[in-house]
Design a protein that fits this description.
By secondary structure, the chain is mostly helical. The protein contains 1 helix and no strands. The chain is rod-shaped. The N and C termini lie far apart (57 Å). The model has no long low-confidence stretch (mean pLDDT 78).
Length: 45
């Protein structure tokens, strides 16, 4: 029972470690959609 609980905790920690990557991918997707919608290069800021 103890090993199962420990394994679950490790999985939780792994998910928490993935959060920044998920946020980065979401932001990246938003930026790509923004650029494709406006059809402008970085100089258009």
């Amino acid at each position: 029972m103890e090993t199962h609980d420990q394994q679950h905790h490790e999985e939780e920690h792994h998910v928490i470690g993935l959060v920044p990557s998920i946020i980065f991918l979401i932001v990246l997707a938003i930026v790509v959609v923004w650029y494709s919608m406006h059809g402008a290069g970085p100089h258009a800021w």
